[in-house]
Design goal:
With 121 residues, this protein is mainly alpha-helical. The chain has 4 helices and 4 strands. A two-stranded antiparallel sheet has the order 1-4. Helix 3 crosses helix 4.
Length: 121
């Protein structure tokens, strides 16, 4: 069981516990297999993270990193480094924020490249 950011959820994942919105309102029961409509509802209700059976945030991030081109990751880290030039990357929370920002930037770059490739055909 692992807490997964709602942006990382995919249809077919199974809830490890009852899901409530930030105000405590019941949304979905433990054991619910997520569908695309559930993902939309979670975002509308302001749910930020969800406990999922058999998956951890590290598993999801490792899977995402494996799908990205190492050159794109390197380019993203260079871009994000400019934003963090005055930050202390030895401080664990800052280093984690840098890692997350780099991953998101790499995904963004990859999406732009894929879109350009589709548009060129």
């Amino acid at each position: 069981m692992g807490t997964i950011n709602v942006a990382e959820l995919r249809p077919g994942m199974v809830l490890a516990e009852d899901l409530r919105n930030p105000l405590g309102r019941f949304l979905l029961a433990k054991g619910t297999k997520l569908e695309a409509k559930h993902l939309r509802v979670l975002k509308m209700w302001g749910v930020v993270e969800v406990n999922i059976e058999g998956v951890s945030q590290k598993d999801v991030e490792a899977d995402t990193m494996a799908k990205l081109d190492p050159e794109i990751i390197e380019e993203a880290e260079k871009t994000v480094s400019d934003r963090f030039c005055c930050a202390d990357l030895e401080y664990l929370p800052i280093r984690e924020l840098f890692r997350i920002c780099s991953l998101r930037k790499a995904e963004e770059i990859s999406d732009v490249i894929e879109k350009e490739d589709r548009d060129s055909y």
